[in-house]
Amino acid sequence: MTLRNHFHTMIHLVFLCFCITTFSSLAADTISGNATLSGDQTIVSSGGNFELGFFTPGNSSKHYIGIWYKKVSKKTVVWVANRETPVSDKNSAQLKILEGNLVLLNESQTKIWSTDTNSTASDVVAVLLDDGNLVLRDGSESNSSISQPLWESFDNPADTWFARRKDCL
Length: 169
Ligand SMILES: *[C@@H]1O[C@H](CO)[C@@H](O)[C@H](O)[C@H]1NC(C)=O
Ligand SMILES: *[C@@H]1O[C@H](CO)[C@@H](O)[C@H](O)[C@H]1NC(C)=O
Ligand SMILES: *[C@@H]1O[C@H](CO)[C@@H](O)[C@H](O)[C@H]1NC(C)=O
Ligand SMILES: *[C@@H]1O[C@H](CO)[C@@H](O)[C@H](O)[C@H]1NC(C)=O
Ligand SMILES: *[C@@H]1O[C@H](CO)[C@@H](O)[C@H](O)[C@H]1NC(C)=O
Prior knowledge:
Elements (H helix, E strand, L loop, with lengths): L2 H15 L12 E3 L3 E2 L4 E3 L5 E6 L8 E6 L7 E4 L13 E5 L2 E5 L5 E4 L9 E5 L5 E5 L12 E2 L12 H4 L1
The protein binds 2-acetamido-2-deoxy-beta-D-glucopyranose (5 copies).
The site of one 2-acetamido-2-deoxy-beta-D-glucopyranose (NAG) has 2 residues, from loops.
């Protein structure tokens, strides 16, 4: 079995086995400036459809940054950021904006995942949209509907499990 298959199996287990946990929330849909997301903190899309934060599959001691449906009781993860590089301590790992990108720092503050854009924008924000898309934007652009995202999770389908949506509802 390849690692990828293995991961798919694991994600499938996530679909089947996850129960609701209570999460504290930043009560916002945006990570900006000096804000960091750690531990059980999450952001929620404006209409309350999707939530982003660390999740922990099954009995695993590994934690992943993911996006899941906020409104369905069985936790259904639709996108995973760091599937190759899970962290073992979500309280000291940090998801934050660094040098124009959204990055995940592990326990030793080493960058283990990044949106990896060549953006030179100094004021970048990450927003979780109500369709489940996580977008990275120039926060100084006041009209968000005309600013092209610098990066979006929908453009990273390798990390997306939307195809399995039917399994879950
Ligand atoms: C981030 O923190 C630094 C140092 O504390 C501060 O100078 C800067 O203004 C802060 N930026 C934002 C956007 O809050
Ligand atoms: C979790 O661990 C317990 C105790 O080790 C075990 O009985 C159970 O089957 C495990 N569940 C999963 C989903 O692996
Ligand atoms: C953080 O990531 C770096 C680079 O992959 C690794 O060398 C280090 O051991 C990691 N830290 C922990 C606590 O896992
Ligand atoms: C970023 O710049 C490097 C070097 O110029 C280039 O190879 C890479 O394709 C660029 N990445 C993106 C996402 O534009
Ligand atoms: C933003 O741009 C769109 C498209 O040009 C326009 O329809 C909308 O009215 C603008 N919104 C604001 C707040 O300026």
